[in-house]
Automatic annotation (TrEMBL):
ATP binds at G26, P27, T28, G29, S30, G31, K32, T33. It catalyses: adenosine(37) in tRNA + dimethylallyl diphosphate = N(6)-dimethylallyladenosine(37) in tRNA + diphosphate. Substrate binds at T28, G29, S30, G31, K32, T33. This is tRNA dimethylallyltransferase. SUPFAM superfamilies: P-loop containing nucleoside triphosphate hydrolases (SSF52540).
């Protein structure tokens, strides 16, 4: 009986000591940054970013990174911590983010995770699958297709092989396309099936929060945000990065369109309209991804004090 009591006490202590990770998710332009800061201030904790574009310090405007004022409201991690010239994989991020959480959990019972990079959130919450290393022969073949037929051909190949992953991947990021197609060719298995298998739960309790946005309202916010980016100097920021346009970090919405303007392919108005269109498309992919989850508590777009109070009650009911 004494041994049973010891085990029971140990179990209860472990339950009491379990930490909480609140993951704030949602499409671009929905207000995740503000919500994460509000939660961090209320709970007296810190924020870990899983927005893969905001890691790079040279891309503040085009990635809508938190402002200096926002950064001053709550401690953030993984914002502007890298240079675009540094290689940084999702595997490296998983290791660094989990290590940072372990550090923070020494003094905090709850930490906030925020970002719209779906696979990066998944890496933190569940861990990455053991996928094969890149196959040189496949990579050479795919690189030749990219150079001779363009990224649209890679998009077509991936859509045919794995329409589910095609719906959520950043189709403008050729490295993501190359990687997925390579893995599919090697394993004869859809990439979406491979990454959907959880590698086991973490030793912290996860509470997922989202912002529900009607599509028309969200698209209007995205369009307005692009206009604000241009007013804040996105054109100048992209011009200063033109020499690095070959780097993976810059092969993304907001920069690739302006590079075409610099090349004389597009006029500026059309380039800006393409940034808006591609941003809306990315938001649609994010919505598709999150819609499949059944563990996200949603706040309305532009939530008010009553909504926030209800959120806090929900969070407290799920805390370990």
């Amino acid at each position: 009986m004494k041994s049973v009591k010891i085990l029971s006490d140990r179990y209860n202590n472990e339950r009491e000591q379990m930490k909480n990770l609140i993951s704030v998710v949602g499409p671009t332009g929905s207000g995740k940054t503000r919500l994460a800061i509000d939660l961090a201030k209320y709970l007296g904790t810190e924020i870990v970013s899983c927005d893969s574009r905001q890691f790079f310090r040279e891309m503040k405007i085009g990635t809508a990174a938190p402002s200096e004022q926002e950064l001053a409201e709550a401690v953030h991690h993984f914002i502007g911590n890298l240079s675009i010239q540094e290689y940084y994989s999702i595997g490296q991020y998983e290791h660094d983010a989990v290590q940072k959480l372990q550090e923070l959990f020494l003094s905090q019972d709850t930490v906030i995770l925020v970002g719209g990079s779906m696979m990066y959130e998944k890496a933190v919450l569940e861990g990455l699958n053991d996928l094969p290393e890149a196959n040189d022969e496949n990579q050479k073949k795919l690189q030749a297709i990219l150079e001779n037929e363009g990224i649209i051909k890679l998009q077509e190949i991936l859509k045919d092989l794995d329409p589910v992953y095609f719906e959520v991947v950043d189709i403008h990021n050729h490295r993501r396309l190359l990687r997925a197609i390579d893995v599919i060719w090697q394993t004869q298995t859809k990439y979406s099936d491979l990454i959907s298998v959880s590698q086991g739960s973490r030793d912290f309790n996860v509470i997922r929060i989202g912002i529900e946005a009607p599509r028309e309202a969200l698209y209007e916010r995205i369009n307005k945000r692009v206009d604000i980016m241009m007013e804040n100097g996105l054109l100048e920021e992209a011009k200063g990065l033109e020499d690095f346009r070959h780097l993976t970090a810059l092969n993304t919405v907001g920069y690739s369109e302006l590079f075409k303007y610099f090349d004389g392919e597009w006029d500026l108005d059309f380039a800006v309209s393409e940034i808006k269109k591609n941003s809306r498309r990315y938001a649609k992919r994010q919505l598709t991804w999150y819609r499949k989850a059944d563990d996200i508590y949603y706040l309305p777009l532009g939530y008010g004090p009553n909504d926030f109070e209800s959120l806090i009650l929900h969070i407290k009911s799920l805390m370990k």
